[in-house]
Amino acid sequence: MNVIVGNKLKILRKNKKMSQEEVADYLDISQSAYARMESGESHSWASHILRICKIFGITPDELLKLEVNNKEISSGQIFNQLSDTVIEQYEERIRELKKVIKDLKEDKKSLKS
After folding, report:
1. pTM
2. Which of 24, 65, 72, 75 is the least crowded, having the fewest Cβ atoms under 10 Å away?
């Protein structure tokens, strides 16, 4: 979620032709603290969300939504999609590891023979 909001902050800031330092000054934080928000390293954007929205003229809901192919997707939908993808990747990795174990057991049996 931090990366999604961070990317959105960066786009909004650049569209307003503002520097990180200008936004940071408005939020009364350091430029490096704001840079961490944009990079997704920090979740402190949540404590500044109303002021951030005021700077960029958006609502909190707009900040937390992502557009994909001109369709708005909520952060919950993104989380669910990412969760499903991660689960599928782990399941595939488990299948691969089971095959490796099976092959190793077969190799061990053939060496004993």
Report:
1. 0.57
2. 72
